[in-house]
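Render this sequence as a predicted structure.
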Amino acid sequence: MDLPGLPDGLTARPLTTADAAGVHAAIAAEEVVDLGEAEMTLEDVVADWQRPSYDIASSTVGVLDGDLLVGYADLAGPDTAYTAVLPSHQGRGIGTALAHWLQRAARERGSTTIGTQVPEGSAADRLMADLGYRLRWTAWDLELPEGHEIEPPALRDGSTLRDATEADRAAAWTLVEDAFLEWSDRERHSLEDWGALVWGRPGFEPWNLRLLFSPAGELVGVTHVHLTGDSGYVARVAVRADHRGRGLSRTLLVDAFARAREHGAVRCYLSTDTRAGARAIYERVGMVVTSTWVNRAIDL
């Protein structure tokens, strides 16, 4: 596979699912340098790659030094890319070559913009700024300090919180996508793609998808929470538009953190960004910012 700009001695090829561990190792190595610890898990990589709409052969490129995967790029969506380069191989032009490959691949698919999210001030952030990528939005990881308890609000009489069943999945998908598409400029994820990231994620258990029902039996809130090592990660929290302003987000968060702790989590965290406008909600329940990210993009 031809990858213009690649340093001498390195090779490139499309990735396969067998490369998941190597990709995760590259991501984790970057995160340790940039954040002090690795946040991404192998399960996250596998779940994203198993979406029915996704084709790994045409969407990825891996850079190898002998048999060692030292960098990769992934056109995960029309305008969304992921990349990583082992810190030991940074500063050699690999990131620039991968960025140009992503731009070409996105342009060939008819996209007018391509971007990715990286830790603020990281080597990747500096490279993208040098290449002309503009800031789209800022994002944060927020953590509930170990041992901190959130006062649980009382459920309204007749309201219920429970694990989702298979029969609930389409309704949960609809509510979450409706909520996220209020502020996210993208196409609606299909039920099949969304499911690959939720109940299709390796290690999924029923408690990972929680539903809140009103006294009238209407679905009004959804959380998706899972374990990442010894941490509980709230991947999604959504409340139906006509039921907001009643403290239901707090109810869902308290429940998600409690379920995660019951299953071994010693810390709990989530991510949000400027588009959602929810950071203040999380800080009011005692969560604190642990890292800041920037989403940068370039017009094609």
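Summary. The first helix runs from residue 20 to 35. The mean pLDDT is 94.
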